[in-house]
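Continuing from the previous page of notes. For each protein in this section, the sequence appears first, followed by its structure tokens. Read the first protein now.
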Amino acid sequence: MSGTRRAFGALRYGLVVLVAAAIASTAAAQLDGSAGALMQSPANDWGPMWSPDGEHIAFYSDRDGNTELYVSDGEGQDVRNVSHSAAADRDAAWSPDGSRLAFVAGDERGDIHVVDVGDGSQRVIAVHDGRDWGPAWAPDGLRLAFLSDREGGSHIYVVDVDVDLAPPVRLTWGMAEQREVAWSPDGSGLAFISHRYGLTDIYMYDSNGGSLRALTRQADPSGGPAWAPDGGRLAYVSRIDGNAEVYVVGVESLGTRNLSQHGMADGSPVWSPDSSRLAFVSSRDGNAEVFVIDADGTGARNVTQNEFADGAPSWSPDGRLAFATNRDGNWQIYVHTPAPDAAWDVNDDGRVDILDLVTVAQTFGASGADLAGDVTGDGTVNILDLVLVAAHFGEATVVGAAPARTPRPSDASMIEDWLDAARGADDGSAGHRRGIETLRRLLAGLTPDTTALLRNYPNPFNPETWIPFRLSSEAQVAITVYDVTGKVVREIDVGALAPGDYLTQGRAAHWDGRNLIGEPVGSGVYYIELRAGTYRAVDRLIMAK
């Protein structure tokens, strides 16, 4: 047996403890909310859509034998069939006031129907022998835009909903093919995908002057457009970079940006009510999951965290996410409820660490409203705020956050001052005592007493991973990755390092998920060995792509 195999075998029996710790660590990291089934049904329910007022959820279900449109209240009660069609219904859209639903009936002609969700009454809109689809409500709730082939091709029409036998007005002409129309939030225009001149792009129709302009250039969108509620941007899906990605284009600036930037497929973008984030569906973790990403393209995180398929996200006005999932054996509607804001994550970076403590300390003595360091919410920043942050030190407030950043040796005198002040203000509460104990441990551990290999992150859903560690003395550091048979998969020469903590992505060892010859490794269990001087340690990681 080779030396590396002997080292691997000798350490293998200690891995049970490490794996148990990894499971606990992963569970603790999922602090950004929880999800539960909206309702229980042996049938399949999918395609949830929150009403604009947040009072109802519309969804599709086969509980009556075919695909029909249903509505429940926001808690999954009072479930009603509102379409009563003989065949599959589709393309449902809420009116702006949440009182009506437009949908395409599952009959031979595929007419657009409008149903009052209160009394169940229905009307057929713009009856014609042609095929109509994709209804989109104007913000005033009086008009519907839709697509139709009634005059050949695929063109956009607008009709007055409440005027009997009102003739629809055609907006687009020529040989171009249109699809997926969406009104701007202020009603001034319609965005849509158009294939013309051999190219597919997003266009904007000015509903006041009738002018038409392209918002993208050779973007080749395959999904969207989805308006941000602030009206300044549109999200869409394109394969222009080789795979399905979520893009954002400015309505005035016309600058486009790849927001999701990942090698696996992303799609179905929907904006949060405040336009600060988007939910989307991604296969980057090996199966379809719902992710949320900040509007600037940072902070992408998996909010469904399940080995089965999740999709079709829909935001409620108060920030909840409804989605469809087959995790229980059939398709059901789940609702993800965000966790309350963690005030002790002062800088909102997803982890509670030394930067949060320093932020509070820098604002000691300040008073007023909405202060970043006022963790207790009493209008002033003092040692009590710092102690509350310390009591939560090391916690993650989002899934997949990196380990907490710890102080440097030069911070010792500062932490000693904090500890003295905290002891002087001790009110005897358990939270205050936890904060004091954290400060004491931070002071004692500025130089690591021992070298240690820490849990890699993100884990387990990681096409690449960072391997954090601590050094108690200067050492030559190397990482070896093994498969489950003990065969070497990758050698990583980290180099000579000074004592300290190597925890963040800028300092921890990085494995890009490739083997010795540069090929991506498959999903499965791997083992990482840290060698630092005479120190050896092994831990387990799971690659799930």
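Done with the first. The second protein uses the same format. Note its length before scrolling.
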Amino acid sequence: MSDLREGTLTGEDFSPTEQLATERLAEEIAALDPSAHAAPPPRAASLTIYSRAATLQLSIEPGRALVIGRGRPSDVIVRDRSLSREHARFELDDDAALWVEDLDSTNGTHLNGERVVGRAAIAPGDDLRLGSTAVVVAAAGQDDRDGPALVGYAQLCALLEHELRRARTFGRSGALLCFRAQRADNDHDIGLVRDFADAVRSLLRGADVIALYGPSMLLAALPEIGETEARLVARQALGAARAATLRCGLSLYPDDGTNAEALVDRAREGLYQTDETRPLVRAGGAASPRARSLESEPTIASDAVRKVYETARRVAPTALPVLIFGETGTGKELLAATIHHSSGRAGPIRSVNCGAIPATLIESTLFGHERGAFTGADKRRAGLFEEAHGGTLLLDEVGELPEAAQAALLRALESKRITRVGSSQEIDIDVRIIAATHRDLEAMCERGAFRSDLMFRLNTITLHLPPLRAQQAAIATLAQRFLEQANASNRRAVRAIDDEAMSLLLRYSWPGNVRELRNVIERAVVLCPGDVIGPDELGERIGSLRARTLVVDVDADDSEREAAGASGATNADDDVTDLQQQIERYEMELILAMLERTGWNQSEAARRLDIPRKRIQRKLRAHHIKRPGSLSDDS
């Protein structure tokens, strides 16, 4: 049987000469697929499957059949409604000829536009479809093992999280490209992404990673690259794709976001701003038009958030500093934009993510610098305080400021003057400061990690944005609003979310809060083959809640013990066994919840839970639990 892991990174995809991540990143990426270093089978044919939900690569060995379908007992399971449970069988014979056999599927197997009846030979270049799922065939030895890895969306997000941590630690940078193909007759055809994916892949490096976002959308993560180089790659891809009109949104890390959801959001926002004259766009800052348009509706769907916004609008006309507390994705930037636009201040709003700037450049970013102030300062540059004169400056993740920058910020707040780096001349400023953080600043003050006098200056007015998990009643309302917006942005007509899918949305813990919900619904609308979103469109993390069943070993006479319990007959041994089972069940719940949050990255889940990774692997094997989309227990 073929060796396939949906959305995994392999050692061959990231060769030693191309590996740009740190040793820890390499170890954790390899942990996503312990079997990644297995040698490819000899004379194997290569298949690339483009479904609505994911892009998969697999190889077929001679003399072995491979069944692809929507559910068990298929060898490869692709969660696509257009597929039958067992849809088609692929086989490579001893003469290296590849055959496909339709297994009486409902929607059929089509080869070059003709429905396959029985068995048919297929070759590279053929147009093959299983239902609406496109399949690209490569001859033995032709699959490009040195090209960028094709992974699942959740795995791409997990990789971005690793790269963001490395970028912050070592001052590195990277880019995320969001491509979408458009065609007048049908821009929801999965064949679109097949038509331009090879052109995009051919321009990328082995260290880059791509994932399917939807039938006509592709994401490409490019580590160790700056904006100029990323734009060059994007423009080359736009010129290479001829089958459809291709457009691209760009986000840069860590500048445009400090988590994967934010980067995807920004790249997609850039994509929505493209047109015929601007096929490549990098989205603007926190106060971009689209962000402002969202400010009054989607973020306000509960009494708790409504009260926060009411308070914000009351204090907006004052010049008092505001400190916003909230987890990642709760909408701190949008709340800051609301305060600014309700303040009556004539100047602009500027924002900076304090955690995304190297410590050596923070003062230059905030206060500006003179020509020759340091290496690379070839001209005078105004800082954000000067740019925001007469307006508002948002200091996002203010808890990440190093000590020297904290002292300089305090001086600016107290004196209302700033001094450019390399100058002795003071400049008067009129700026309203809004600071935002997800950290406990009071605890940081107690540890000496944050200046208490700066804390007192910033928290004159404090606003707390609740996490989405504390707004259970708001989830359905937000989901419907995001659905309507996604319909408009993607020219779709999805009308509803079915009951099972909504139940999963309500059960999920939403570590990425409102931003994550918006991204999930946006992608579900893009993936949805009909007009109602089901569980299959919600992605691996949320969709896996439906199939997650804890298999706890229970003795054969458990039913007798339950019957005895009902009659009041219990003993101490039974109580101990029940307690052990409850502890085991609770531990597995914690492990599975963390795996879902980390995109099933076992090393990252182990780090966050502070347990050995082998313990997670042992527990998963013991309970026969697999990562969604995997063919083995050791995913």
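What the second structure shows: The chain is about 35% helix and 20% strand. The chain has five domains: 41-138, 149-286, 303-464, 468-547, 558-622. We return to this in next week's lecture.
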